[in-house]
Design brief:
By secondary structure, the protein is α+β, with helices and mostly antiparallel strands. It folds into 2 domains: 11-146, Tetratricopeptide repeat domain (Serine Threonine Protein Phosphatase 5, Tetratricopeptide repeat, Alpha Horseshoe); 167-245, Sporulation related repeat (Alpha-Beta Plaits, 2-Layer Sandwich). 58% of the residues lie in helices and 13% in strands. It has a 4-stranded antiparallel β-sheet, with helices on one face. Strand 2 and strand 3 (207-217) form a beta hairpin. Helix 2 runs antiparallel to helix 3 and helix 5 (74-87) packs antiparallel against helix 6 (94-108). It starts with 10 loop residues before the first helix and ends with a strand.
Length: 246
């Protein structure tokens, strides 16, 4: 389902960030110099600065945004951007965060979800410069879809999922519940944050458990990194398991 290292930051979009940064919110850190450093290829400089900024301003939404930009793991970045949108909707980079969520789903081929995020972007931030860019992406997609007969040529969401999941080796067991409503609540939290999740049943000692899994990973280090995100953001005591075992 999820390709884990999708970079949602590209130079043309960086220009939009700089243009929209002329009026900074006084309570937020100015991260424009570090975004410019990334644009110029000085990623190490931006990462070094981020380390200090996270210590000094751990709850600053602009610092969070810079953290998301520098993440190599797409799922980790997605959690950060969603937190900015949910908790700091009036912050400097809230619209940019929502645009990046749109871009994530668009890059995965989950176009219906991407369209939903674009609707949210237009509703919440009607003056955002990212709307035009997102509209252009979907316009190209619509033109491409209209060139072929959809029933014969367009894959379903489930077909795309199977294609992208083929190389996944690990997942995270996020929780096991005897009450299915509790399991569904955790799954809903994950889904709202854009995290791939699924449910499986296991019988242990005669008791049926509803097991919630989150994410699919090709590399163990990616799973380990994302487990830390889940532990911090959702207070889950999860564990990494092989997909072949669940």
């Amino acid at each position: 389902m999820l390709k884990l290292k999708i970079k949602l930051f590209s130079i043309p979009f960086a220009v939009l960030l700089f243009l929209s940064s002329e009026q900074l919110y006084p309570q937020e850190v100015n991260i424009v110099p570090y975004l410019k450093a990334i644009e110029n290829g000085n990623i190490a400089e931006a990462k070094e600065a981020l380390t200090d900024l996270k210590i000094k301003y751990p709850n600053d939404p602009s610092v969070m945004f810079l953290d998301g930009v520098l993440k190599e793991n797409g799922q980790e970045a997605l959690v950060i951007y969603q937190k900015i949108v949910d908790v700091y909707p009036n912050s400097k980079y809230a619209d940019a965060s929502l645009y990046r969520i749109f871009s994530y789903y668009y890059a995965l081929g989950l176009y219906d979800t991407a369209r939903e995020k674009l609707v949210q972007l237009k509703s919440a931030y009607p003056n955002s410069p990212y709307i035009q860019v997102a509209d252009q992406n979907l316009s190209l997609l619509n033109s491409s879809e209209n060139e072929v007969a959809k029933p014969k040529n367009v894959e379903s969401e489930s077909t795309k999922d199977k294609t992208t999941e083929d190389n996944s080796k690990y997942t995270i067991q996020a929780g096991a519940f005897t009450n299915i409503d509790n399991a569904k609540k955790l799954m809903s939290d994950f889904e709202n944050a854009g995290i791939y999740t699924y449910l499986s049943n296991k019988v242990v000692g005669g008791t049926n458990f509803h097991v919630v899994y989150a994410g699919r990973f090709e590399k163990l280090e990616d799973a380990e990194s994302f487990l830390q995100v889940l532990s911090t953001q959702y207070k889950v005591n999860g564990s990494i398991v092989s997909i072949s075992q669940n």
